[in-house]
């Protein structure tokens, strides 16, 4: 067993002590390069710095600002394309001038020699006026209208649209009563099962409810809304908002209809459907416009411009 171990160990010793082959090759390569390196002048190894004359004589590096929206990599290619298109445009203009001269449009020897089209005005152009050069800027109101507000969630829309829903509830009742009275006035027949007395009472009740509705609006609701909304501004004559002016026109028609129905109720006059129609048609268009416009003004999309949700909750309705 000892002999086997000694033979194994001694068999590996020569391979371990043998140096690697690349060491001999690298050493021989360095010995061959040594004479060449010694022959070089010492100045070739020293760092060379540029003189002040060379620095000042160098041309400055061109700097340019890229236009917005351009890619830095594709910008040189775009410049090459533009440079290639410029000579083509120049060639096209030269061909047009030569063709016009050959067709006989040029008059006189001077135009023929210069190949200039006399129909083209070569005089220097007059300076453009300030009216044409000035850029028209839209007013601030149009810019503000173009700015769209963010979309409302369903819960936010219900909060902002609360006043419009309440107002439309009362207005729908007025529309139904008006249609009942107007239908009888245009057809000449009362609704089935309705007597003359109840029909006249229904008309007078419609007028009293509408008058009370307008009184509550002008005393309690419109003054609060007018703090921020010009649609409910109070004033005299044309100084008031359109909705308030509509109230006055509606009241004039209400007084005519109320006086006629009261005379019919007392028996001074007989109820005539043609006469009832003339008493209603003078202010019917203004009434229906007011009922729709007032609800639209109190809508969510318009109210969100002036009020917050917390402020709308505090407005009485």
Automatic annotation (TrEMBL):
Start-end of Polar residues biased regions: 1-13
Segments of this protein annotated with the region Disordered: 1-150
Domain Hemerythrin-like: 165-297
Amino acid composition bias (Low complexity), ranges on this chain: 77-113, 122-140
UniProt superkingdom: Eukaryota
Pfam families: Hemerythrin (PF01814)
InterPro entries for this protein: Dimeric_xanthone_biosynth (IPR053206), Hemerythrin-like (IPR012312)
PANTHER family: EXPRESSED PROTEIN, HEMERYTHRIN-LIKE DOMAIN-CONTAINING PROTEIN
Official protein name in the record: Hemerythrin-like domain-containing protein
Species whose genome carries this gene: Microdochium bolleyi
